[in-house]
């Protein structure tokens, strides 16, 4: 079963351009930078495997069966990632562990097995995701765009960090047993640095001829022995990262972030106009709602969530000011209306696509249009930042509240519960705009 992604803290770049460290060159250069980082991550994964071997080496049977499960548990084919892990295991076992003549307990269990068993899912996901990254980056075509690969790499780093944190809790034990990270890392890097080389592909096939001797050298002590029952019981995992649902789920996360950004820009506009005339604030809010909901034969999930933006915006005075309707601030805000309408329309369309089971192949094009619209709005509102904040606009505070509203966007269980809330907010919107309508009449 694939594990699900969760929405984390939303970080905003002031210029509305997401930070992708690989977007400074052409596609080929971007891919090369990713390959370099994946090599380093492969080294980190291997170091964690080695550290677990040193933790388990008080019982050789446990250690070898764990290595065998990790190596053989995925696919019998000699994949490049698995071949390198096998060579790392073999080298460490013959050079650092076997010569010390550690205890071989029949049907025994390492003292550290309880800890290592908690790392199994991270190890399992670590090997599989690394295999996926290498396979994708070895291809000539572009099966994933750079954003998805960057997101996958960032999420993969978190997998390795969790793994490292668990193993570091017994750092004193592994080092006492002979684990020396600084000495081991350079040797492991020499194995991984060629994983994307064309010549290395041929070398990998050549390894098939010597892999039998490697397998024999490390796994002969457990050959024909019944596998450790607790290791046999370790479950298989299908990681979320770069899995079947990964592109769609990542797009959903981007939509949530774009929705939050849209809401914050609406709020900034309203706080800015609040200083001049609260009536102009209400007009802006009402027109946004009309633009978002007109000519629609279904509900607008985006407009429904924008209903919550006005929660903290109250008029300064009970009476309307500037009765002659000369609203200075509204002149600035009027220039954003077209982009707001376009952003809401495209975001609604994308939500509808992602809520269905159909194709979302044009999702990246739509998100690009939304980002461009929000960037234009942000550029126009840059001059309003000081006034908005003086009038009470606090991005960090509002961001956490708005996140709670948007995180349920694709939650089917929350959909039914959401409708009564929307109706209450529509009634509230009517009450809010009542003074405006009465004044107009």
UniProtKB/TrEMBL annotation:
InterPro entries: DUF1184 (IPR009568). It holds the Pfam family DUF1184. It comes from the Eukaryota. This is (rape) hypothetical protein.
